[in-house]
Write a structure and sequence with these properties.
The protein is built from twelve helices and no strands. The longest helix is centred in the middle third of the chain and has 30 residues. The model has no long low-confidence stretch (mean pLDDT 86).
């Protein structure tokens, strides 16, 4: 128990470090943009490649990716129902859906659990990334009424422009056909991949900031409340209804929460 708390404290300390450095003026909004670009375009894709290279898994585990898509669609649907107008609907659709896997759950699980658990997280994030890094944005834009945008082109552009999504698609295809990447390339990719946990936590710390306006409190409380209740319901659904071993259920519960 003490070791677990110590590990969690280490991750929290990186978040605190990013926040403190921002408060001291060493990081700015531009710094966040730079760090997030490095994470999403370099270290996270590298971590995906490292974790999925050479893996072999049962075909039924691919349903975990489908589960992620379904969970996101539920939140998107709730967001559409909750919104009073087009702007509120698009806000809820964007902010209710999506699970913070690549930048939080993946570093967390890889720090605490073995490679089998990391595989489950990656499979979930394969479906999650397609939704939260592309399709949800496209749907929200369509609901809001983006002028001159074709829904099909918008969805394709948002999905295919995401480096993590493309990384998942390529690596899962390679795993399906039992193809492994050369060891020299994996050695090269392992260097930026090892920095993903640290930079992801730092990025969260730099992004932290509270600026509340009374006019937005209802929307914020509704968003957070529905999100927590929805996550709790999904966790219960994973525990009681999924036909997977408890080791897999445990990781999925962490992921949806």
């Amino acid at each position: 128990m003490i070791e677990t708390i110590a590990k969690a404290g280490t991750l929290v300390s990186f978040i605190a470090c990013g926040y403190i450095l921002k408060q001291l003026g060493l990081f700015s909004r531009e710094s966040f943009n730079t760090i997030s670009t490095i994470v999403f375009d370099i270290t996270l894709p590298a971590a995906i490649i490292i974790h999925l290279n050479g893996v072999h898994f049962e075909g039924r585990l691919l349903y975990i990716s489908v589960l992620a898509i379904v969970c996101n669609l539920i939140f998107i649907g709730l967001g559409y129902i909750l919104g009073r107008d087009k702007i509120e609907k698009s806000f809820y659709m964007l902010n209710l859906n999506g699970f913070n896997i690549g930048n939080f759950a993946l570093p967390f699980v890889s720090y605490f659990f073995d490679s089998a658990a990391v595989l489950i997280v990656c499979l979930f994030d394969a479906g999650n990334s397609i939704m939260c890094l592309g399709i949800a944005y496209g749907l929200a834009c369509c609901v809001r009424g983006q002028e001159g945008e074709n829904i099909f082109h918008l969805l394709c552009r948002s999905v295919l422009s995401s480096v993590p999504v493309l990384s998942y698609i390529v690596m899962l295809l390679l795993a399906f056909f039992s193809i492994t990447l050369p060891s020299s390339f994996i050695h090269w990719a392992s260097i930026p991949a090892s920095a993903n946990t640290f930079l992801s936590m730092m990025m969260i710390g730099v992004a932290l900031g509270i600026s509340l306006k009374k006019d937005f409190l209802r929307v914020i409380y509704t968003d957070i409340g529905v999100r927590f209740m929805g996550a709790a319901g999904m966790a219960a659904g994973v525990y009681f209804f999924l036909d997977y071993p408890m080791e897999i259920k445990r990781v999925l519960i962490i992921v949806v929460v």
